[in-house]
Amino acid sequence: MIEPRPEVRALPAYRPGRPSGVAADAMQNLAANENPWGPSPRAVAAWRAWDGGSTYPDMAGQMLKEVLEKRWGVPPAALLLGTGSGHLIKCLSEAYLRPGDRVATVHPTFSLYAHGARLMGAEVAAMPGTGASVDWGALAGWVARHRPRLVFLCTPNNPTGDVAPRAAIEAVLAALGDEGLLVLDEAYRDFAAAPPDTVSLAARHPHVALLRTLSKVYGLAGLRVGALVADPSVIDAVGRVREPFAVSAPALAMGRAAVEDEAHRQWVVEAVQAGRARLEAALAERGWAVNPSQGNFAWAAPPAGDAERWQRDLMARGILVRWGGSFGVKDRLRITVGTSAQEHLLLAALDAVAASRREKQAGGGPVG
Q1: Is the pTM above the cut of 0.70?
Q2: Taking burial as the number of CB atoms within 10 A of a residue's CB, which of 43, 137, 158, 195 is the most buried?
Q3: Whether residue 37 has pLDDT greater than 80
């Protein structure tokens, strides 16, 4: 049997929000940070109108780039499309990392930054934290000490939900110097109340790149469309390792229609922000420790700290949430903001679990 590279053998498998074998319609899925309202009706219409399949898609995705230029203020030469942000993270690692290089990030955060680094034989320096939030003010010092070639920052951070302030980003950039690239993953940017203007920063600085996705606010997670915003020199390098025709023709068509429907995007943003406020307030009322989030999810610790048991108990009642252990934080859960109906089911399940535990405690039996 042929053996894979040692770097591949050492890679941990990615753990999705919905466990393997659990059908999407079998549970209320509040574990994957998906958009429960779905894509714009215009995007659905574009899917139904698509009748191709025998020809290759536009490799550059020019028509989608044109609407992204209008929406984000980014010229097409500074845009590269990929099959989701995860694909582009891997491409960045392949384009820039060498064995022995170092990648800096924070803990906890999205696992694919470390995955791409280790695939290329690079080291990962994750700044430790409490697990509740990120100490953005300490990050520049961490970067200066470790001298990484790539820095990956998720902002709002997944799973903690906090946004990197502009001052902290600029401090990290200054600490990085001219031999590194700062990558800001902005998958959840649309849901933040007042995110910093990173497009102008990337336009002025060739050592800043932005990752964005159509999976979250635009509801196209199943289509896999992501975008890299960066200096044309970075776009050229990453484009050389990205697979040809990476984004399918129906994904390009749906992506264009979704981005053009600004009213639907804004409706989703407002629904998430209102739902997030209700969810965090409801968790706090029930004694949970809640870290204020700017994503489409809450990050909270149950009163007794037994988060994994809560995850199992909620799953038994038809509710999927994400245990923080997959991020290395065992006392917390990440809960996606759902529809009002899903919110009602979640809170009812939380109350049912709590009541069951009280009954067992009163009877002297084991809890859980």
Answers
A1: yes
A2: 43
A3: yes
